[in-house]
Every structure is written in C-alpha cells, then in structure tokens.
Amino acid sequence: MKDSVSKTLFSLSAVDRDIQALTTRRTDLENQRRDLFNELSYVKGRVVELEGLHREAESRRVLEEHRYHDEEQKITERRRQLSAMGVMKNVKLVEREIDIASRSLESLQKSFQDAVDSASALGSELSELRERLEKVQMQFENTAQEAETSLTEINKSLAAQTAEHEALMAKVDERLSNLYNKVNARYPGEAVALAKSGSCRSCYRALPAQLYNQVIAGNRLLQCPGCSRILVYSDNGDE
Ligand SMILES: [Zn+2]
C-alpha cells in the first residue's frame, strides 16, 4: 500500500478486528460467569427447598413410626387380655378387636414404610445436590476470579484500541469515515477489501473494468458490488 489513506484504512481494519475479537471475548467471559452464577443460584435454591421437604419427610417418618408402634402395642395388650380371660365370655369380642387392629396395623406399617422410603430418597437427593453445590460453587469462584483478571486486561486493550481507532478515524475525511462506519457495522473489522487482478479479494467477485480502474486511480469511496466492502487497490501480493 503506497498511499497513506489506504494504509490508514487497513490499519483501521486491523484495529477494528482487534476490537471485535476483544468484545466477543469479553461477552463470552461475561456470559460464562453469568451462566455459572445462575446455576449456582438455582442449585442453592433447590438445596433449601429439598432441606425443607426432607425435614417434613423426617417428621412424618417419626409420626408414622409412633402410630405403628402404638397400634402394635394395642394388639399385644389385647392378646394378653385374651390369654388372661380363660372364660369364653368376651373372647369373640376381643378376637374381633384384634382382627381389626391387625388390619389397621398392616396399613400403618405401609404408611410407615412409605415415610421411611421417601425420607431416605430425599436424603440421598439432598446429599447429591449438596455435592453438586460444592462443585458449582468452586467452579464459580475460580471462573469469577479468572474472568476478573481477564476482563481487566481486555478492557485495558479495548481502551487502547478504541483510542487508536479514533486517531485513525481523524485522519480520513468525513465521507470516507461515514462510509467506513456503515460498512464496518456490517462486517466488524472487515470493512476493507483488496482489489487485485480485477476482482475483490474478500468475496472473489470479478469487478467491472470501469470500477476497477477507478479503484486503481485512487477513488476510496467505491464499494464491491458483491459484498459492499470498501475497495482498495493492491499491486503487491499481501496485506
Ligand atoms: Zn467483495
């Protein structure tokens, strides 16, 4: 690139590519940190919720255990009564009571077992969740710390590159800077395309001869008909 406007345009492009990459990286870091924070809040909330459910299940288990043992004791009591009676008088009645109590005992045993199972299931779920919480907490703390350091660096570089962008922008006239901003908004950091051997080096579209000649002549306000990038002529290989 011989002339200074072309140089400025390419420098601008390079600076804006950097700005774009830094901005993307910053967004990624912020998203990552936010995602972990959300997961952490979710797991924390879920642990609290499960702790409540587990406490309820435990009290239910204790209650069911008492009801079961009370009924069991009642039956034992009736049996003792029955064997002490000896006479036939009330035997039928007591036997009937025992029969009813036995059936009731069966259903109490089932309730008790249900309470034991659900308390134990909640207990395992809770301890798994606590483990997960610990992991997420650690991951979050590490990531937050790393992100903090990286973000400081990124923001420093971004400030420097933004200043460089402003300085370069001040070198080009208003029409060109307006055009550049418009194209750069569409292709961040990729607003400038090399015109070489009659075609655009960004989209490889062949340029009409008249347009190509105008680009060679140094007109800087011409855009590629294929990709709309600002065309800059190059007679050497790279850049
Ligand atoms: Zn193009």
Extract low-pLDDT stretches.
Answer: none
The total count of helices amounts to 4
Task: Give the end-to-end Cα distance, rounded to a whole number of Å.
Answer: 8 Å
The CATH class of the largest domain = Mainly Alpha
Number of strands: 3
Predict the CATH topology of the largest domain.
Helix Hairpins
What is the makeup of the main sheet?
Answer: 3 strands, mixed
- Global structural class: mainly alpha
Bound molecules: zinc ion
* Total tally of structural domains: 2
Beta-strand level of the residues, as a percent range? under 5%
**Which sequence of SSEs, written as H and E, runs from N to C?**
HHHEEHE
Q: Nearest-angstrom radius of gyration?
A: 40 Å
Form type? rod-shaped
Average pLDDT, rounded to a whole number, is 91
The assigned CATH architecture of the largest domain is Orthogonal Bundle
The percentage helix is: over 70%
Fold and architecture overview:
The protein has two domains: 4-172, Helix Hairpins, CATH 1.10.287.1490; 176-233, no CATH class. It is 76% helix and 5% strand. The protein has helices at 4-85, 91-169, 174-186, 209-216, and strands at residues 192-196, 199-200, 230-233. It has a three-stranded mixed beta sheet. It is rod-shaped and about 130 Å long. 15% of the residues are buried. The site of zinc ion has 9 residues, from loops.
